[in-house]
Amino acid sequence: MRKHALIASAAAAALFISGCATEGTGMTDGQKRTATGAGVGALAGAAISAATGGKAGVGAVAGAALGGVGTYIWSQNQEKRKQEMQAATQGTGVNVVQTQDNQLKLEIPSDISFDTGRYDIKGNFAPILDRFAEGLRSSPNAEVRIVGHTDSTGSDAVNNPLSLNRANSTRDYLMQRGVSGSRIATEGRGSYQPIASNSTGDGRARNRRVEIYVGERAQ
Fold first, then answer.
1. For residue 161, what are the domain limits?
2. What pTM, to 2 d.p., does this model score?
3. At what angle do helices 76-88 and 126-137 cross, to 10 degrees?
4. Exposed, middle or buried, 198 (CB in 10 Å: 0-12/13-18/19+)?
5. Cα–Cα separations (whole angstroms), residue 193 to 81, 87, 137, 161, 177
6. What are 109-145's pLDDT values in tens digits?
7. Cβ neighbours of residue 197 under 8 Å, at least 6 residues apart?
8. Cα 180 to chain center, whole Å?
C-alpha cells in the first residue's frame, strides 16, 4: 500500500511542478503539454522503479518518455499498422487496439509470448514480432514502449526483474530485426497492474503478459 501511495504522490507532485515550470516560458500549448507530461512521467517513473526495486534514475528516464504523451496522432501509417497487426495476429489471442491517446497497443498473453518463469521468446511469438519489426522499419518516426507484467505468484524479488527481462527480450528481438534500440523504451511492472483476478488460474494467465505501444508524434 505504501508503495502505491508513493507512486500516486510522485505523479501529483510532478504535475504541479511541471505546470509551474512551463509558465511564462513562451512555449506553445503543444510544447507545454509535452514538457508537463515528461515531468510527470519522470517522477512517477522514478517512484515506480523505486517501488519495484529498480534504479530510480533509470525509471525516471523511462517515465519521462512515457509521460510525454498527448501529442500522438493517429496517422494513416498507424491505421495501416493496426490493420496489418490484426491480420497477422488473428486467432492467436493477441489484442490489437487504438488507445485513447492515439497509440497502437498490442497485448500479448503469456501462452503466446513466454513460458512461466522464463523470458526467452517462444516460437509462436517470433512471427508476430517479425511482422511488427517490418512495419517499424518503414516508420522511422514511430516510438515504441514495451511493458512486461507478471501475476502475483512469487515475490517482488522474482517478479520485478522477470517482467523487465521479458520487455528487454522483446526489445532485443526487434533490434536484431533492424529496429533501432534508441526508439524503444522498456519497463517492468511486476505484478502491480493486474487486468484480472490473481485468485484463478485463468486470471493469472491473463496477468502474465507483455504490452507493446507504438506512437507517432505530430511533425
1. 72-217
2. 0.69
3. 160
4. middle
5. 26, 28, 30, 15, 30
6. 888 888 888 899 998 899 999 999 999 998 888 999 9
7. 203
8. 16
Q: How many domains does the chain have?
A: 2
What the block records as the C-alpha cell of 180 is: 533501432
| 163 in the same domain as 108 | yes
Give yes or no: residues 22 and 97 share one domain: no
Tell me the per-residue pLDDT of 63-76, one tens digit each, with 9 for 90 and over. Answer: 444 444 458 999 88
Residue 24 main-chain phi, psi, to 5 deg: 70, 20
- CATH code at 85? 3.30.1330.60
Distances (CA, A) of 186 to 15, 21, 66, 91: 23, 27, 10, 27
Task: For residues 193 and 126, state if they share a domain.
Answer: yes
Contacts of 110 (CB under 8 A, 6+ apart): 116, 205, 208, 209
The amino acid sitting at 32 is: K
Region of residue 53 (left: phi > 0; alpha: psi -120 to 50; beta: else): left
Among residues 67, 93, 123, the one where a domain terminates is: 67
Beta bridge partners of 144: 184, 214
Q: Scanning the structure block, which residue is given the C-alpha cell 509470448? A: 113
Q: Are residues 84 and 167 in the same domain?
A: yes
Q: Which residue has the cell 507512486?
A: 7
Strand positions, DSSP E, 89-177: 95-98, 104-109, 142-148
